[in-house]
Amino acid sequence: MMPPGLLAVPWTKIKDLTELTDWNGKIVIDATNRLEYGTGIEDGGLASSEVVQNYLPGAKIVKAMNTLSAKVLAADPSVGNGKRVLFISGDDKDAKAIVSGILSKIGFAPIDLGTLAAGGRLQQFNWPLNSQNFIKL
Questions:
Q1: Is 104 exposed, middle or buried (0-12, 13-18, 19+ CB in 10 A)?
Q2: Which of 24, 38, 41, 99 could pair covalently with 62 via S-S, beta carbons 3.0-4.6 A apart?
Q3: 47: closest CA among 127, 96, 120?
Q4: 24-59 pLDDT, tens per residue?
Q5: How many domains in the chain?
Q6: Whether 32 contacts 14, CB under 8 Å
Q7: Which domain, by its residues, includes 79?
Q8: What is the pTM of this model?
Q9: pLDDT tens column, 104-136
Q10: Pairing state of beta strands 60-64 and 82-90?
Q11: Closest CA relative to residue 116, chosen from 71, 52, 38, 65
Q12: Cα–Cα distance between 21 and 72 in angstroms, integer?
C-alpha cells in the first residue's frame, strides 16, 4: 500500500487536482482550509473536506493537520508531560487508522472526530477547533 499523500494547496486550486492522477484508493490527508469564497468551487453546503472528496474521486480523504499554524506544527509535539493534539476526520476507518498511526509515530496525539461531514466541519477555518492548541496529558 502506498503511504498517504498530504494535500496542502490553496483552496482555489482544489478543482485543478481532479485529473492530476488516478485517486482511486489513495489516502489523502487534507490539510487545506477554505479561505476564499466565490472562487468557482461550489460547495452545496458541504464541509470543505467533502468538497475535496468530490474533486478527488475514489480517494480516501482524512482531514488533518489544518487547525494549527505551520509554526506550531513544526514545533516539538511533546509539550511538558503531554503531546500536542491533532484532530482527524474521515469516512474510511482504515484510512483514519493509518493516518492516526503516522501522526502518533511523529509524536502527536491524534483525536478522531468522526466523519468528514461532522468532524471535518469542526476543523474548518473559523469553526470551533481552528487554531486551538490542545495538549493531551
A1: middle
A2: 99
A3: 120
A4: 999 999 998 876 655 556 677 788 889 899 889 999
A5: 1
A6: yes
A7: 5-136
A8: 0.90
A9: 999 999 999 999 998 888 888 777 888 889 899
A10: antiparallel
A11: 52
A12: 31
117 neighbors 89 (Cβ within 8 angstroms): no
CB 123 within 8 A of CB 113: yes
- Give phi and psi for 102, each to the nearest 5: -65, -45
3-state DSSP assignment of residue 70: helix
- Which CATH number does the domain housing residue 114 bear? 3.40.50.720
List of residues 6+ apart from 123 with CB closer than 8 A = 49, 63, 66, 67, 87, 89, 113, 129, 130
Closest CA to 130 of 115, 122, 106: 122
Amino acid at 65: M
Amino acid at 27: I
Answer whether 71's CB lies under 8 Å from 46's CB.
no
